[in-house]
Amino acid sequence: MNELPVLPAHRLAVQPEERRWLIDGLWAEEAVGIVGGEPKCCKSFLALDMAVSVAAGTPCLRRFKVGRPGRVLLYAAEDALHVVRLRLDGICRASNNRLEDLDIQVITAPSLRLDLDADRRRLSDAVARLRPRLILLDPFVRLHRIDENASGEVAPLLAFLRELQRSHALSVVVVHHARKGASRVRAGQALRGSSEFHAWGDSNLYLRRSSDKLTLTVEHRAAPSIGGISLRLASSGDALALETAESAASEETVPPAAVESPERRIETALASSPTPLTVAALRQSCRLRTATLCDILAGLVRDGRAQKTPQGYVAATS
User: What does the angle CA 127 – CA 68 – CA 81 come to, to the nearest 5 degrees?
Assistant: First the structure.
């Protein structure tokens, strides 16, 4: 007989505080949820900022820290690929990252429909192959041809994404529109379509615009909510990125840090470490893909600027 597994409550695993968050205070570890808001509320900019921060290990919106960076799988259904690239480049410049150093994998298929068995299998296969820490789907309306107001049609699609999350221990972010003119109701209730969307999310982010003021509200299933975070879309040349009002104020007194090259980051890490560093340790501290890291290490060794030992890599001795 195939019995259901059970455990006494006191034997359930306790999650350490440092493992509770994918992005501190903003998105729970292995959470599914919605980035929601009316049109032109910068939902895609916020979602892409999350993608860059998770891939790079740098704070989202220059404020919310990432504890365990990892690969991101992105499907941007509404924007042309060159627009996605431009936005990611701008966010990387704002966060002192280089896009070529980040493990962000972009699905380039012209369509992806989660109401079709074949496309669900394609997405499941991609997740199993790539093992991302975060999947970002933008927006939900382009992922199906169902009636979003019908709970019986919405629930199976959200259940599929929940199954992906549980099967592969990852987080899922879905960008979804709010109803126009719903600014007077609670943010979660303003989401377009079935109430299943609001109920589904473990972490939900809601953007609202009033006149020229953009505000972020954060809701969690298992943590206190955060409200009233003021954001603005800042420009630097042709680069655009969201930032908090706190970040904007600090920029007035603190000049932006220069972007260090990957080679320089590796040399700095080796020089400051009293013991040899493994590839895994360097990858985490320097926020580089393994292939990029190994190529640079090989060049540093070849040029006599680093040495490889059985315990790991060290700075070259003069």
Answer: 50
